[in-house]
Amino acid sequence: MIADIVQERYENKYATLREIGEKFGVTRQYVFKVLKQTETPTLRLKKEKFTICLICDQRIDDSLAKVHQGECHGKYYYHYVFCNTCYKKWHLRRSVLIQKRDRGDRHIYCSRECYIQDRFYKWSDDI
């Protein structure tokens, strides 16, 4: 039984002492005692923490960030938008776009003048 516990520790390095004990029907304290007597490491290996970049699908080590710094960051947090009236192109933050969507705004304007022009003085070909 002792040899089985030691073998389980070497085969399953991510298992806790409790999990090993449950497998063999003993307590975690007994598993700890057996591993100490046989000079086997008692600490389990920790799983690596990493995330996957939402833009380029590459691994980001040791960070909880959603995207890489630099180009991926710019692509994720800033988007090109067009004015609904004059078709001017510029960058708008992602958070502002989400707020507009949640608020129910259907149009994006570059200035107050473009908003007024589109909302109240529609361009017409009749004039």
Classification by helices and strands: alpha+beta
Which overall shape is indicated by the principal axes computed on the Cα atoms?
rod-shaped
- Oligomerization status of the protein chains: single chain
Give me the count of strands.
4
Helix fraction bin = 40-55%
- Describe the sheet with the most strands: 2 strands, antiparallel
Distance between the termini: 95 Å
> Helix segment count?
6
Q: What's the rounded overall pLDDT mean? A: 89
The radius of gyration computed from the alpha-carbon positions, rounded to a whole number of angstroms, is 30 Å
Q: Give the H and E element order.
A: HHHEEHEEHH
Low-confidence runs: none
In spatial order, strands of the major sheet run 1-2
Amount of beta strand: 5-15%
Brief summary of the model shown:
The protein has 127 residues and is of the alpha+beta class. The chain is built from six helices and four strands, in the order αααββαββαα.
Describe the structure.
A hairpin with a 6-residue loop joins strand 1 and strand 2. The mean pLDDT is 89. Among the domains are: 2-37; 75-120, no CATH class. It has six helices and four strands. With 127 residues, the protein is an alpha+beta fold. It is rod-shaped. A two-stranded antiparallel sheet has the order 1-2. The chain has helices spanning 2-11, 17-24, 28-37, 71-77, 94-103, 112-120; strands spanning 50-52, 59-61, 78-82, 89-93. The longest helix has 10 residues, at 2-11.
Key traits:
127 residues, two-stranded antiparallel ribbon, 4 strands
